[in-house]
Amino acid sequence: MADPLIITPFDAGAGWRMTIGGSVGNILNEPVVASLTAAFRRAADTRELRVICLEGAGPHFSYGASVQEHLPDQVAGMLARFRALLFAMLDCSVVTIAAVQGRCLGGGLELITLCHRVFAHRGARFGQPEVALGVFAPFASVLLPERIGRAHAEDLCLTGRTIGAEDAVRYGLVDEIVDEEPAEAALRFAREHLVPRSSSTLRYAVQAIRADLRLRLEAGLPAIERLYLDTLMATEDSREGLNAFLQKRPPRWQHR
């Protein structure tokens, strides 16, 4: 297995390139999520750090969370770990820029939704495909309306379809499309606009601009997680959808 996460400092430690790896498609399984959470917590204690550039190893950003970890005997732990990661991202108060190429799906899209700026290659694809697997996207249900508005969030979460980079810009999910490596564009933006700033001032600015978001996540996530764990996971179709995906066959919905 490849390294789940590689951190490469740049500009004398003013920035970190944080590269998600570990598998084909950079699946956000338990080791990867644990590594990301530890890295963002370390970032919170790294005084000189101004910016993190988050990217995926290889041709894709991330296919999302492990489908295996969505199964009934593992899903509670998976949700708890992913929630801890999202709050670690919020609480580190370091400006985070996503550089996306290839597929950015499911949990991968939830990660970039919390980033402060998103650069995407023209060929990148974005989606919340959970509904096609008989489940829903619990964190995107709160995060996506905050970033792109309810109508666009409902489009992605209720259809499970993927969209291209141009639609992602129109939705407000992506800030800039590039034809070069998106990481290079992200680094250039970081060096021009963030590296010259005071790290302590940037952190206070991040805390101020994100204070309401954190409060809304704290208020909204518990009820959504209960709906997922106590109600959705008791349905036949949630189990059928996940098992059908793992067995590489079409689902046979019972509509209950």
Structural commentary:
The chain is α/β, with parallel strands linked by helices and 256 residues long. The chain has a domain at 5-182: 2-enoyl-CoA Hydratase, Chain A, domain 1 (Alpha-Beta Complex), CATH 3.90.226.10. The protein has helices at 30-44, 75-92, 107-113, 140-148, 150-159, 165-171, 182-193, 199-231, 236-246, and strands at 5-10, 15-20, 51-56, 95-100, 103-105, 117-121, 125-127, 162-164, 176-178. The strands form two sheets. It has a six-stranded mixed beta sheet, sandwiched between helices. Strand 3 (51-56), helix 2 (75-92) and strand 4 form a beta-alpha-beta unit. Helix 1 (30-44) packs parallel to helix 2, helix 3 crosses helix 4 (140-148) and helix 4 crosses helix 5 (150-159). The longest helix has 33 residues, at 199-231. The chain is globular. The mean pLDDT is 97.
What is the CATH superfamily classification of the domain at 5-182?
2-enoyl-CoA Hydratase, Chain A, domain 1
Q: Which residues form runs of ≥5 with pLDDT under 50?
A: none
**Based on the structure given, which CATH architecture of the domain at 5-182 is correct?**
Alpha-Beta Complex
Query: What Rg is obtained from the alpha carbons, in whole angstroms?
Result: 18 Å
Query: Approximately how much beta-strand content do the residues carry?
Result: 15-25%
H/E element sequence: EEHEHEEHEEHHEHEHHH
Structural class: alpha/beta
Helical fraction: 40-55%
Task: Note the gap between the termini.
Answer: 38 Å
CATH domain topology of the domain at 5-182: 2-enoyl-CoA Hydratase, Chain A, domain 1
Mean pLDDT: 97
Number of alpha- plus pi-helical segments: 9
Number-wise, the strands total 9
The largest sheet has its strands arranged as 1-2-3-4-6-9
How would you sum up the global shape?
globular
* CATH domain class of the domain at 5-182: Alpha Beta
Sheet having the most strands? 6 strands, mixed
